[in-house]
Amino acid sequence: MKRLQKLGLGILMMACFGTAVPQPAQAGMFTQTEVEQSNYVVMAVPIARGGYRLLVVEQIKNTRPCWSESGSNPIVVDPLLTTFDFTGICGRATDSNGYSIRVAQQDLGLQYSLRIEQGNGELVLVGSSHRGGPAMVIGRTYGMQEGQFLKFILEPGWRLTRRTYEGRVLGHVYFTNDSWEAATGAAPTSVSSQEVPPPVPVSNEVNELPTSAAPIAIPVPSPQS
Q: Does residue 74 sit in helix, strand or coil?
């Protein structure tokens, strides 16, 4: 069953990449809106070639749970949305089309990438600068369990918010901190948001990913709608 769920999630994430719509607005024109944190889970997804990919799942409606959690240090996540048609029930962001970093009211999508590092018996979610700026430790799993989907616990000062544009709430999720010093332990660096960064492990185009998608065929036993 677990192998089928992972296969289903792989198909789901591939479908996400094909449905992103370019966002013409400049990053500096975006603002943020607060969200209920318990409606989201941030997880590390193991990938076949090794390493982990970041996935953010949102519970939009309570029709069916989008995930379940078990254990502690680390918390293991079961991505239930891979077992049914989640349209309108669950939202998901699989790459920088769907999530980015925002610090002190500044959109850092073109300046920082999100990546997962492993060490000292845990996974760490890190904001990494393309231009030599200070790194940001955003979340930790507080333990390891190979081959499992692991939940990130955000560090103090960090939370999720949603991107807004001209009063309209968009599907894009921000990893948000209100203070640059709290996020990095250093004063902000002077960078231009208009420069295009070099290739990084997670791409950083400023695009929007819809919070729901058309039904996706997922090879699981007897799916329910």
A: coil
- Decide: 41 and 75 in contact? Cβ < 8 Å: no
Q: Is 223 helix (H, G, I), strand (E, B) or coil?
A: coil
Q: Token pair for residue 167?
A: 């009063």
The residue behind tokens 């959109």 is: 107
Categorise residue 87: left if φ over 0, alpha if ψ from -120 to 50, beta otherwise.
Answer: beta
Predicted confidence at residue 23, as pLDDT, reads: 39
CA–centroid distance for 114 within its chain: 8
Joined tokens for residue 162: 């949603």
145-199 tens-digit pLDDT? 999 999 999 999 999 999 999 999 999 999 999 999 999 987 665 443 333 333 3
Which parts of the chain fold into alpha helices (H)? 2-18, 180-184
For residue 78 the two structure tokens come to 């079961």
DSSP of 157-182: TEEEEEEEETTEEEEEEEEEES-HHH
Q: What is the distance between the alpha carbons of residues 137 and 91, in angstroms, rounded to a whole number?
A: 25
- Contact by Cβ (8 Å): 154, 42: yes
* 136-140 sheet: strands from edge to edge: 112-119, 122-129, 136-140, 153-154
Best CA proximity match to 140, nearest among 13, 42, 2, 222: 42
- The Cα 174–Cα 81 span in angstroms is 22
Q: Which residues pair with 53 in a beta bridge?
A: 45
Here the tokens at position 124 are 């760490």
